[in-house]
Amino acid sequence: MAIPPIDRVQDDAALPAEVDVAVIGGGIAGVAAAYFLAKAGRRVAILEKGAIAAEQSSRNWGWCRVQNRDEREIPLVQRSVEIWANLAAETGADYGFRRTGLVYVTRSQADMAKWESWVSMARQYQAHSRMLTAAEARAATPGNDGAWIGGVASPRDGMANPFKAVPALAEAARRLGATIHQRCAVRGLDITAGRVSGVVTERGTIRAASVLLAGGAWSSMFLRRHGVDLPQTSVRSTVFLTEPAPSVTEGGINTPDITIGRRANGGYIVAANNRGRIEVTPNGIRHARKFWPTLISRWNSVSFGAGRSFFRGPDAWAGNWSFDRPTMFEREDMRVLDPAPSPGVEGPGLAQLAKSWPALAGTKAAATWGGWIDSTPDAVPVIAPIDALPGLFLSTGYSGHGFGIGPGAGRLAADLILGTPPIVDPTPFKLDRLIDGSPIREPGMI
Ligand SMILES: Cc1cc2nc3c(=O)[nH]c(=O)nc-3n(C[C@H](O)[C@H](O)[C@H](O)COP(=O)(O)OP(=O)(O)OC[C@H]3O[C@@H](n4cnc5c(N)ncnc54)[C@H](O)[C@@H]3O)c2cc1C
Q: N or C end of the chain, less CB within 10 A?
């Protein structure tokens, strides 16, 4: 079975002629920004080519973590986890957020050294993570006799429910006055006298003083059409959800063999035997030089291949498309990017699950799916105004960890658009760092 159903969001039939902010993309980055903009009283339209949360924002593990993040993201993700914790009370909706704690365990001294250095760096931010001894690592992974030498744990981190959270936030934005338009692709920007003046959608043009591009894997292609370079490439990842099974944890556990997270229905979301797959594509080739140092340092966690993504999808060649004809965003097979899961994940993953936790032997998979993860060269997102096109703002490049930071990122994007004091210093998230020729920092995410 492919991905289980995601909560549906009500659509607004009529496209507004004018809004204050047009948001391109109904993933967590776009929806969270729209929520905060609507809360500030702005007229907002969310334009989504497929369905709210149907791409990365529903396909993820649901982890909302400060632990092991790049230092540049720590203040923002800390604010984000606070927002997650308050959203249900603030909006009266269910996001499935729970502070379950997240645990990483290992048999490797090198992992311990990396984590120790992160924990000591993160102390200046009052992060809650702490190192685990071998005995504590065993106690934190009951039923798994993995011979751990130690670990690291963050009791204040947690998980939300990706099948529910972004749709619930979209409905909350809608109640505050935002309009939502699904199956409404944006073909391009309307530009007047060098300034963004709106968006051209498949259903007509909307005038807007500001436009937020939160297009996930599609952002780089979209920007290229307007002469803006965003170094971005994608990695295909595969996960599966089990049927309800006995409890070995109520939170999330990462071991060298397998990663599991308990879902509210008693199933586990599992990643195992799963090196992200990088496919050779025109967009990947274009930006290869910028990704090379990161690739070298993460060589063991990725595999390479080629497939139809060379010709179709966000990393394919797109040319200089016209806005008065259907674009690739409207192709039926691209309305929702739904990459096939990699073979060889589910079967070996279930075997590893049983080996790691004998109590879970016989557990069956309920659904297996793929996700197309967009990444920047330093694995830190871009949340910034685009100087070359006044009126355009970007919130994208979440590099495999945008769900947890999403609410905070939405608030930051809204602050930048509103011109109000930003919740955190936005400097680390500028686009310039990736395109001005200065050396690109290695990812600090572990
Ligand atoms: C298997 C997997 C596991 C993950 N686990 C975690 C995790 O545990 N924790 C975590 O924090 N993150 C995790 N992530 C990453 C996280 O899911 C993403 O970083 C995050 O969802 C990105 O959100 P987004 O809004 O930027 O992009 P998306 O959710 O991909 O949304 C972008 C939207 O823009 C729309 N769009 C694009 N172009 C147009 C256009 N021209 N017109 C209209 N609409 C358009 C798309 O249709 C899409 O719906 C995981 C990802 C995957 C795939």
A: N
